[in-house]
Design a protein that fits this description.
Radius of gyration: 17 Å
Strand content: 35-45%
Number of helices: 2
Helix content: 25-40%
Largest sheet: 7 strands, antiparallel
Strand order of the largest sheet: 4-3-2-1-7-6-5
Number of strands: 7
Distance between the termini: 60 Å
Structural class: alpha+beta
Number of domains: 1
Amino acid sequence: MAFLIFFAFSLFLLIIFLDRYMMHKAVKNKLQKILNLEEKIVLIKENVKSETFTVGLKNHRYHFRKSDLYFFDNAFVIIGFYKIVGVKIYTCIIVFSDGNDLDTKDLKTFNLNSSNNDIYIEFGKASFTSTNVSVRLKNISKEEKQLIKIK
C-alpha cells in the first residue's frame, strides 16, 4: 500500500514537472523568435518585482512575482518567472506592441504613472473561457517609463 501511495505521489510530481518544463520551453522559444526579429532592443531590465491578479478562467501561468522586461523601439515585453534553487523558470510572455507581427495582447488599462513608481497594466476579458489579467510592475524609473512607446 505504501508503494502505491509513493508511486501515485511521484507520478503527480512528474506530471507537474513536465507541465512546467513545457511551459518554460515554449516561453523561451517565443522569446528567441522575438529576439531574432529586426526590432532593436533598447533596454533589458531583469528581476523586476511584480504583482498579478487574474479574474475569470484561472490561468496559473499569469501568476508570477518577478519578471524580466524587454524594451524595444515599438514593443514592450514582460516575461514572468519564478526561481527554484536560483534557476529561472519562465511562466509566461506578455507582448505589447504597435504595428508589427508579434502576438500582442489587447490592452484595457495601461497606466505608466501609478502609485509608488509602479506601472499598472490590465488586459483580457473576464469570463468562463478567458482571463482578465492585472499586472503591476514595481519600482520602474522615469527613464525606463519613457522607453515604453505603445498606445
